[in-house]
Structures are given as structure tokens and as C-alpha cells.
């Protein structure tokens, strides 16, 4: 009988994370998901109440998974949120909170998981970054920066752990239609000084997100990369976004960011 793969998903009670949990269960996996919520949202998955910014809580959650299931085959680091606003007016505490959740939360999970994967000589880490990593978005600077940090970190980690049978995949989703939009912590402080550009930029972002890719379709791509034999190093979700990411590599910065400014910075 085929052994079920054991997968841990962070931020698994909403949005892309919840969709990944459902897809993993369809694929016959043993699924553990964690979030700050007291209870889970998907029957069949084991919920762990855990704040990824708390190292002790993360370690306890990972230890519990291994104690119950005997191993971890894959982890999908999905937990995160977004802030928006002008760099000039964003408070340092808000910027640090963005990094604490999106980047250091992921770091905490991997720090707890890696010793187990190292001993197993197997496992896969799937880190959710964003198209906003290679293409920085104005008035969403700290979100873009946190996701860029994930991309660089993941590519470095890849070669550190490759000799021990551990694979690392970075996912770059484009706009996904989820509750992420409503949950964004928005600030329009300084909008008068910026000629109303902050509010207009956020409105464009929200329109794109609410007309974006279905989370179930995004989850199908993520789960495939978590479970397939030969995963991609970096996987962009969405045909048009693949084109944008490709162009960001070959188009001169001056031209590329004139285009970005026309879309998000007017």
C-alpha cells in the first residue's frame, strides 16, 4: 500500500493555503495545517493553532507533526499578509511586522523543519513568494521587499541542502482572488502630498486581485510542485505573469520601471 505523504501548510485556514489543504487531501496526503485561528476550516486536515512569528509555537507544532506522523515530507510556507502605503509615511513598526510574518515567519518554520528533513535525507520546502519579488510595486514596497527576501533566501537554501536530498521550490503567484485583498493593511497617509497616487495605486491592485486567478487553480500548481518528482526551482503562476517575470530579466530597468510606474504609480 502506498504510504501517504505528510505535508504541513502554514496559513492553511484561508485563501491559497486553505485551497492547498483541500487539494492535498484530494491527492491522498496526510495534511497538517497551522494558523493563528483556534480551529481549522477543512475537515480531514489536522489543525494546529500556531503563530509563525513565535519560534516556540512553531517548534512545538513541527514537533507534534513528527511525533504523530513520524516524518514530514513537505512543507508549504504560505502564511503572510500585505500592507500598502508610501514608503515616506510607513511606520517602522508596520514595516517590521510585514517582515516578521512574511519572511521571518517562514524562516522560523524552516528552522524547525530542516533538522528533521536533514536526518531523513529527504523532503521538500515550498516557499510562497510573489511576482512582486522580481517586479517591485510602488506603494507596496515592504510587501514586495519581503517577498524578494523569500526568493533570495530560497535560492541560497536550495544549494545548502541539495546534497542531503532536500528540495526547495519558490512559487511566484500573480494576482489571486482571495480574502488577501480585504485583509491588506492599507494606509493612505500622505495621499494629498502624493497627489492621490497612493489611493489610485491601491485601487488598481485591488481590481487586479479581485479579477485574478482562482485560488483552487493556484493551489493545483503549488501542490503539484510539492509532490511531483522533478519540481521547478522557481515556478510562476499564471501565463501573463510568466511573461512579465521573463521581461523583468531582459528589459532594462529604466524601461521596465517606467512601465510599472504607468500601471501602479500614476
Helix and strand string, N-terminal first?
Answer: EHEEHEEHEHEHEHHEHH
Give the termini separation: 58 Å
Largest sheet: 7 strands, parallel
Task: State the helicity in percent bands.
Answer: 40-55%
Structure description:
This protein is α/β, with parallel strands linked by helices and 266 residues long. Helices cover 50% and strands 15% of the residues. The chain contains nine helices and nine strands. The protein has helices at residues 15-26, 55-69, 92-120, 141-161, 180-183, 197-210, 215-227, 239-250, 253-264, and strands spanning 6-10, 30-35, 46-49, 74-77, 83-84, 123-128, 166-173, 185-186, 234-237. Strand 6, helix 4 and strand 7 form a beta-alpha-beta unit. The longest helix has 29 residues, at 92-120.
Key words describing this protein structure:
266 residues; alpha/beta; seven-stranded parallel sheet; two-stranded parallel sheet; 9 helices; 50% helix
SSE inventory with pairings:
Layout (H helix, E strand, L loop, with lengths): L5 E5 L4 H12 L3 E6 L10 E4 L5 H15 L4 E4 L5 E2 L7 H29 L2 E6 L12 H21 L4 E8 L6 H4 L1 E2 L10 H14 L4 H13 L6 E4 L1 H12 L2 H12 L2
Parallel strand pairs: 1-2, 1-4, 2-3, 4-6, 5-8, 6-7, 7-9
Helix pairs in contact: 1-7, 2-3, 3-4
